[in-house]
Amino acid sequence: MTTRESAILALLGFGIWLSGAVTFRFGGHVMLESGPVGVAISAAAIALSVCLLLRATMDWRRIPAAQSVTVAVVMTLPGLFGDVAYVLGFAPLTGLQPLTVAAYAAVILFGTAVLYAYALVRARL
């Protein structure tokens, strides 16, 4: 993968993260403060969404499935760095209760773990 392609994927990944951050800002109370079932549904929906986004992006850019892990890492790194700042300023940035940061972190970690597992399986098939 070229440096240019990596930059495109990283910018796209940052855009996806940013849209998620905005979603959490305006819909986080429904997703994260409605009890364990709401958090579980949010985690599953996010995990499914990021896997579908990886597949769609790779198809769009015509990147072979063997490079799925590399693409997943390149796309998620900007958002993971962004999540550090987001978690540190969680309550003011989201308007949610400070303790909701635990549910947020769990959802993000779950979605990222599922994405990486999906990328590994996809790369090996």
Report what the structure shows.
- The protein is mainly α and 125 residues long.
- It has one domain (3-124).
- The chain has five helices and no strands.
- It has helices at 3-32, 36-61, 68-88, 90-94, 101-124.
- The longest helix is centred in the first third of the chain and has 30 residues, at 3-32.
Summarize the structure.
Helix content is about 85%, strand content about 0%. By secondary structure, the chain is mainly α.
List keywords for this structure.
mainly alpha, about 120 residues, 5 helices, single chain
Please tally the β strands and state the result: 0
The low-pLDDT segments are: none
Distance between the termini: 19 Å
Largest sheet: none
Question: How many domains comprise the coordinates?
Answer: 1
Strand content: under 5%
Shape descriptor: globular
Q: What does the average pLDDT come to? A: 96
The run of helices and strands is: HHHHH
Radius of gyration: 15 Å
Helix/sheet category: mainly alpha
- Helical percentage: over 70%
Number of helices: 5
SSE layout and pairings?
Elements lengths: L2 H30 L3 H26 L6 H21 L1 H5 L6 H24 L1
